[in-house]
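Blackboard transcription, Thursday session:
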Amino acid sequence: MELVSQLGAGVTDSLSYLGSLAMLGSRAAYYTFIGPFKGKPLRLQSAASQAMEVGVRALPILSLITFFIGLILALQSAYELNKLGAMTLVAKAVALSMSRELGPLITAIVVIGRSGSAFAAEIGTMKVTEEIDALEIMAINPVHFLVAPKFLAMIVMLPCLTIWANTMGILGGALFGVTQANFTLGRYIQASIESLYLRDIFSGLIKSVMFGVTITAVGCLEGLSTGGGAEQVGHSTTRAVVISIFLVVAVDLVFTGIFFFLGNG
Amino acid sequence: MDREHPNPLEPKTVISLRDLRVSYGEREILHGIHFDVKAGETLVILGGSGSGKSTLLRTLVGLEKPSSGQIWINGQDIAAISDDELYEIRKKTGMSFQGGALFGSMTVGENVALPLREHTKLEDSTIEIMLRLKLEQVGLAGFEYHMPSQLSGGMKKRAAVARALAMDPEILFFDEPSAGLDPIIAAGIDHLILELKKAFHMTIIVVTHELASAFLIADRMVLIDKGNIVAIGTTEEMRTSTQPRVRQFLDRVPEPDVEGELDYLQTLTERYRRHA
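(Written on the board underneath:)
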């Protein structure tokens, strides 16, 4: 009996958490897309500096990781394809799995580690030092002031990073293709491009926008619900990372399912 | 309270609390608080740690929602109005937080200018002049390009007051203005509050547990204990009060069980010394 009630409590807690996330996400979307037409201009300067932090500064580490991932994919698929005598399909395998799945996912995970955690820590610290309360007292909406610029930066930068990640992954695969599978660089890239349809790239980009929404909502919600004390900021940051990774994978599953049943698969 | 026929000779009532109750979850923190604040007066809310005085302040400015009762500020019950209406009231109030709550990523000048930039359409040059003026009022002229982290505790509080003054508020709230400051700096903040009172005739509400500071700045005082009002009156009435709880607080008599704890600590220390 106790197990059932615990399970019930767990389910209601999770649902109310998702509800708060949806609420925060929709309020951020309101201040980003509708607010500016209702006399509440978005803080574009802050959005630009967030975009710099979320996007541009992530490029070196993201490039390195996705290059390695592309190389790993090539090695793993070559192991099987070699037995079938179809080494030329390595390019296709890497290009497809990067742009449909791993490009968006790896990008999201790198961004969670760099920015999702930073959002939670920044807003959490502001909560602890009463800066969020101070905004409220000055009649400045914290969602408008803090969350909306991050939201805009995320949904713009995540697809951009994803395209970059796809490219780096394909280049990683090319390193294997050129050195081990008798491709020239030009030939490998051509084979990659030929194996991709626009829908492969778009499905990945749509997912990456949804990942951006999820990461911002979780990071900011965790920050805003930080309790008192420095210790709680650390706690919020950890929760933000763990919950974001879980929800990004869940969102990934949902959208991959939708694309599959829509016949885009 | 006669809202319909106010006496024109009496100062207007700016804030009225009516049977205000606040709970965190199941636990009720404030059990029916009831008082009025007149325009231009300085009211000090006194109380020990855990008395509910900070919760009272947070509720007064709308950061906590009461579980029942009313908070009338300039004729509007802030517990019952929409967020937009509350924001309109807040534009006419300022608050200085205990730790300053300055935005760490902005300079002192940007902190003070923020409400002006958000709520007014003033030119940058006008805002610049206004923020210099506000900083001068609190004795921080020339510090507009400093970061909050470069300021001392007392200076942070002054900067926070400057920010609270930015929109020329009618009501100013102070949370523990002298907490964590040495006596000389704390006295400086007290004098700043007195000057503001004299110069602008603002309604000022201060939450503190510092007796000396309270008696210096207050017109009237409210003593809160365990979520109830114990006494309310002018500084003179408080000073001469014979109510046991008021006397205990003003004469700084410890609670009996606290004494027990001190004895216990002393025994522990002695035992430790013997071992060392």
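Lecturer's comment: Chain A is about 85% helix and 0% strand.
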